Amino acid sequence: MAERIIILGGGVIGLSTAFELRRRGFEVAILEIHSFGGQASGAAAGMLAPYSEIGEDPDDFFRLCLKSLRSFKKWQQDIKEVSQLPFEYTESGSLHCIYHEADLLSMETRQSWQKEFGVEARILEQSALKQLEPELSNEIIGAIHYPEESHVYAPDYVKSLEVACEKSGVELYDHLQEIKLHEWENSIRLTSKDGRVFEGDQLVISSGAWAKEYEDVFSLQFPIYPIRGQICAYQLEPARINHILYSSQGYLVAKENGTLVNGASEDIAGFETSVTEKGIRRLTNWNYHILPFLKQLRPFHQWAGLRPATQDGYPLIGRLQQANRVIFSAGHYRNGILLSPVTAEVVADMVSKQSTSIQMERFAPERFS
Q1: Does 178 share its domain with 298?
Q2: How many beta carbons lie within 10 A of that of residue 232, not counting itself?
Q3: CB count, 10 Å around CB of 50?
Q4: Domain range holding 287?
Q5: What sequence ranges are listed for the domain FAD dependent oxidoreductase (predicted)?
Q6: Looking at the DSSP assignment, which residues form a beta bridge with residue 319?
Q7: N or C, fewer C-beta in 10 Å, the chain?
């Protein structure tokens, strides 16, 4: 009889892990206190852009992101095949823009170390940039062009994952309001607020910022905190902007439905997901320095999501040494969408007690204790 795996948390990490475990033959149930993909996952801009975001250090985290990016094309095809639900996956490439000559050296340094990992990256001057994106501001003097970076439409991706899980035979339980863990040593047993009991052989905790609640249960420190990310969107003609556009202030990414997503301002507001005028103003105060026409437009949509950030910026992924039936997989911060396929693979390997080719010591969940 197949082992039964309980997953706490129905965001993109929990759903991806459930999908991978189910296709490896495990019985899987996901428990979610709210709605599936309702926090960081569904609110994300959906960028798959580790080269633009990680510019300083080719560490184990970069390697993890790199493997996930290069797994994504096959991964998203598998999800679409099972769910029969389409979602946007666009291999748009990106432009990481700079405004000052002093930034050229850091750009060249970034290009140099990333080249060792087979990253295709071209440094473009203003004239070449204008050929790729004519609408770019004349303030921009250059950029790194990353053809490999891409993006998905996050709400549809998460929904497709949910349906793929359901069609694969994963048990999905949402709006449970409260979940308590009672047994984790000899077996797994949890209860929901309405009294339902959930039992299994192993437990995967993928509850994002809510994973911190298990510090007292395991007498360990899990410093994961919710960071509110506020985003806005503009209505544009389709294909007016073709690349992900980065600067030191944030990003702009155009979707197939004609929206231009602008993000993200960040602040600490506990579990509050309201949108603030100050948070959106942080975006509108700089975005026209990338695309000047935005100064004449107003966002038609604004929203916020909670990003689970750890104390050192790296996720917690690994089996607890003192509770060998429990695996943590939380704290992916801004990279939950990007890291969903590789996290699913690594956690499924851990559940199966198989070795993995990825160095995971840096992400040990007990490293703060």
Answers
A1: no
A2: 24
A3: 25
A4: 91-149+225-310
A5: 4-350
A6: 327
A7: N
